[in-house]
Design goal:
about 15% strand; about 240 residues; 6 strands; Undecaprenyl pyrophosphate synthetase; about 40% helix; binds farnesyl diphosphate
Length: about 240
C-alpha cells in the first residue's frame, strides 16, 4: 500500500483520537484497563509509522479533562501506562530525532507524571525530526480559554489580536494545524479535541478499534486524505502539496 502514497501530498500534521480501547477489551471479556494496555502497542506503531513516513507533526489524544470522571483504577492505570511508555520509549524517541511535547493543562496531573513529561520534553527538545504531541489532561475549549488568558496577561488589546497571533498563544504554537484528523472505533465526534486547529482538517473515521490500529490503517487514512479535494471554503483545490521530506 505504501507505494501508492504520493510523497508530495503528505499531511504535515496528523491528529488521532484513539478510541475503542474499552470495547476492544469487552469483546474479549477482559477488564477495560487491558484495552488501554493493548492500546500502547498501537501508539508505538503509529509513532514509528508517522516518523518513517515523514510526517512533521503527530498529535495523539491520550486523556481529556473529562476522563478524570472514569473509575479510579482506570485513571491510575492510564497514568501508569503513560509513565511507563515515556520511560521505555525515551531512547527510541531520541534515536529517531523525535521531539516530544505534552499539550494540555499541567495543573491537576500527578507530580511524578509531570516530572516524567518534563524530562522527556527536555531530552528531546533539540531533536530536528517529527514533533510528537501527547494531549493529556486536554480540552480544546480549555486551550482556547488559556490562550485568551495569556492574551490578557500579555496586555494584548483587541487591535493586536488576529487569528495568527491568537494561534501563537495556543499549546500548539508554531506547529502547522492538522491536515488529517483520524478517529478510531467509528464514532462521529470531535470530542473537544484541537477545536481551533482542526478548522480545515480532513476527517477520517475508521471502525477499527484503537488497539487494532496498525501501520496499514494509517496508510489507508493517508491514502483517503490524498484523494480529498481541499477547498478551504473556496473552490476546487488538490490536497496540499509540499516538498518531499
Ligand atoms: C479511548 O478508549 C482511549 C483513551 C481514553 C485512552 C487512550 C490511551 C492509550 C491508548 C494508552 C496510553 C497512552 C499513551 C500515549 C502511552 P475508551 O476507553 O473510551 O474506549 P471505549 O469507547 O471503547 O470505551
Amino acid at each position: 500500500m505504501a507505494h501508492r502514497l504520493d510523497p508530495l501530498k503528505l499531511p504535515a500534521h496528523i491528529a488521532i483520537i484513539m478510541d475503542g480501547n474499552g470495547r476492544w477489551a469487552a469483546r474479549r471479556h477482559l477488564p477495560r484497563v487491558q484495552g488501554h494496555q493493548a492500546g500502547v502497542d498501537a501508539v508505538r506503531d503509529a509513532v514509528e509509522a508517522c516518523a518513517r513516513m515523514g510526517i512533521s507533526v503527530l498529535t495523539l489524544y491520550a486523556f481529556s479533562t473529562e476522563n478524570w470522571k472514569r473509575p479510579q483504577l482506570e485513571v491510575t492505570t492510564l497514568m501508569r501506562l503513560l509513565k511507563r511508555y515515556l520511560k521505555q520509549e525515551r531512547h527510541t524517541l531520541v534515536e529517531h530525532h523525535i521531539r516530544f511535547r505534552m499539550i494540555g493543562r499541567h495543573e491537576g496531573l500527578p507530580a511524578d507524571i509531570r516530572a516524567e513529561l518534563a524530562s522527556a520534553e527536555r531530552e528531546t527538545a533539540d531533536a530536528a525530526g517529527m514533533q510528537f504531541n501527547i494531549a493529556l489532561n486536554y480540552s480544546g475549549r480549555a486551550e482556547i480559554v488559556d490562550a485568551a488568558r495569556r492574551a490578557v496577561a500579555l496586555g494584548l488589546g483587541a487591535d493586536a489580536l488576529d487569528e495568527q497571533r491568537f494561534g501563537s498563544l495556543l499549546y500548539t504554537a508554531g506547529q502547522p494545524d492538522p491536515d488529517l484528523l483520524i478517529r478510531t472505533s467509528g464514532e462521529m465526534r470531535v470530542s473537544n479535541f484541537l477545536l481551533w486547529q482542526i478548522a480545515y482538517a480532513e476527517i477520517h473515521v475508521t471502525d477499527v478499534l484503537w488497539p487494532d490500529f496498525r501501520c496499514r490503517h494509517l496508510l489507508e487514512a493517508v491514502l483517503d486524505y490524498q484523494q480529498r479535494e481541499r477547498r478551504y471554503g473556496g473552490i476546487k483545490q488538490p490536497a496540499r502539496r509540499r516538498r518531499s521530506p
